[in-house]
Amino acid sequence: MSSHLEVFTPSGRELVPLAGQRVTLGKASGNDIALEHDATVSRLHAVFENLGAAWSIRDMGSRNGTYLNGEKLTAERVLHSGDEVRVGKSRLIFWMVRESAAGGRDEATVSAAPVEGPPRLTRREYDVLVVLCRPLVSDDPFPEPASVRAMAGELYVTEAAVKQHLQNLYDKFAIPSEGDRRVRLANEALRRGAVTLAQLRDSTT
Description:
Layout: E1 2-9, E2 12-18, E3 22-26, E4 33-34, E5 46-50, E6 55-59, E7 66-68, E8 71-72, E9 77-78, E10 84-87, E11 90-97, H1 123-133, H2 148-155, H3 159-172, H4 181-191, H5 197-203
Parallel strand pairs: 3-4
Antiparallel strand pairs: 1-2, 1-11, 3-5, 5-6, 6-9, 7-8, 7-10, 10-11
């Protein structure tokens, strides 16, 4: 089993393999993952630990905190494929690659491999995705996907209707039930091209 991080920087996207027993993350150049461009990141901000069958993340007493799927870390947490990590203004996504019994790779979680296209969506499901993901292109240093209430207000539908559309989207994108499913859905929708950053920016104008 191997894993990597998808690191989003001002210059674009970088894929960083996770190897060894621990991987340090911070602003200082000596870190394994150095985010020197981000002044809101501490010199040693967080550490990824190799647990053998999985990886975990731990905040190292950083000034602005480490967020996992929108939740501030208060203890070490085991990572799952597709988890979003935010440190300062920087965004990273953890991906796990599982080796199959035949020796091949399960590409469903490999961002570097050809990405599976999005599922077929209804017009309303697409509208829900756009509203869900739009906050990710805001100037907020810690953006989170839109809440159910905010989506209902913008789409002029009930919260129950939004929840039903979200459930359909969770099923179509195979979003696991644990953790913040809205964060994972937003990441998966962007990864698979169901919505693009350009479309989200255009929808705000």
